[in-house]
Amino acid sequence: MDKGAKLFLLICFYIISSRLCGQEIVVESYFLQDSAMLGERVGYVLKARYPSDLPLLFPDSTYNFGEFELLEKQSFESYTADSISLDSAVYWLSNFSLDSVKSFQMPVFEILKYDSISHFSEPAALALKLTIAEMPEELAFQQNDNYLNIPTAFNYPYLILGLVALVVVIVLAIYFFGGKLRKRWQIYREKKKWKHFLNNWEQSMQTLVEKPEIQEADELLGLWKGYLENLTGLPYKEWTSTEIADYLQNPDIVKDFRKIELIIYANRIDDHIREACNSLLDVSRQQLEGKIENIRQHE
Fold first, then answer.
1. 37 part of a folded domain
2. Which of 22, 44, 89, 217 is an S-S bond match for 263, by CB 3.0 to 4.6 Å?
3. Which keywords label this protein (predicted)?
4. Three-class HEC string of the chain
């Protein structure tokens, strides 16, 4: 027998022995559920029954899972009885196929000296579970005539226009009536100051009449001079009684000062102390009226 025939017989023997060995391996696979949503985690079981003396390997993470993505592989210990071994593993996969039904199968590998043989199971089917229900051919509308209050948005353009118009009105009012408004404001302030002064004056005067002592007399004169100084802007607090009388052109006011100063410097009480206080109050009122009249006549 020549070398060619020997080589042919050797190849045939190798193929026949491989097929005979392959017939002894039974592979089974199935999904743990019939359907799954897109990307949902689903278990795929792969089992192999084979003679215990055959080297058999299950696919690992390097295997090409196609449109499935391997999340985790869970292997179990081999079970051997009567020289027959049973191996199993669960592959946790995610399906990203848009097919309504996806078929999938995986092999186990019989390891030879220089090669390996792939033994596949029957394909397992996994249906795609739709998350959105199919639209019916005819749509059914539900009638609802209840009033729905929709809040309106705030109209900012109108607000801006209103503010601009307000500013324009204020500017025009100041331009045409600014002088009169300013005079009225000044008069209002002076009258307000007078009212405040009058309240303090009446309290101080009543205290002085009931308790004519040095401190009360000094406080009353200081209150009067302070108001006149604020009203006219002149240094009334620094002036003497004679200087005040000269400026006001009112010599009789010196007598009123003396009746009050008599308490301060001589600790003596004049019987006409109230009349002196009223006279000083009249002077301050005249000064107020003169300033108000000056404000009205001022251009």
1. yes
2. 217
3. Membrane, Transmembrane, Transmembrane helix
4. CCHHHHHHHHHHHHHHHHHHHHCCCEEEEEECCCEECCCCEEEEEEEEEEECCCCEECCCCCCCCCCEEEEEEEECCCEEECCEEEEEEEEEEEECCCCCEEEECCEEEEECCCCEEEEECCCEEEEECCCCCCCCCCCCCCCCCCCCCCCCCCCHHHHHHHHHHHHHHHHHHHHHHHHHHHHHHHHHHHHHHHHHHHHHHHHHHHHHHHCCCHHHHHHHHHHHHHHHHHHHCCCCCCCCHHHHHHHHCCCCHHHHHHHHHHHHHHCCCCCCHHHHHHHHHHHHHHHHHHHHHHHHHCC
**CATH number of residue 56's parent domain:** 2.60.40.10
Q: Is residue 82 part of a domain?
A: yes
Structural domains in the chain (count): 2
